[in-house]
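I had to read the description of the data format several times before I understood it. For illustration, here is how one protein appears when written out as sequence plus structure tokens:
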Amino acid sequence: MIKSIGYVDLAEIRQEWAPLNMSNDSAAKWTERFLTTWLIADHGLVNKFGHCFPAAPGYQWLPENPDQADRLYSQEDWAQFETIPRTTLDKTITYNPHSVPTSDAPSGAFGFRKSVVIMFSFLHTPHDGLLIVMTRKQRTWKIVRLFWVVT
């Protein structure tokens, strides 16, 4: 399990994927895979395996965490799952991490009273963006939606 899963409201991720009737475990695995796919150097490979869509053929082959991706990379058959160097955000994303664009979502957007939307792209995926919706729940901010956006 990756560390970031503690910042995710899995019930809300399940709601995002309601038509697939996901369990909490499936929602956690999807979240982990989704976040890990952003670290795979060959983004075309992510597309080949269904772009992290749970019903796509090949989805189950996507790594669930960066360590698993690196282990798969070390095996001859899965050499393509190499991950990008994981250093600091300013060396990884297209925006300075101190000025990543954020926006307050209108009240009621995404079904929440107060949300913040963050969007950025990674240097190795200039035409794809990651959109994160967070809302304050019980005195802490939680990720309630994750979207892949073509920029």
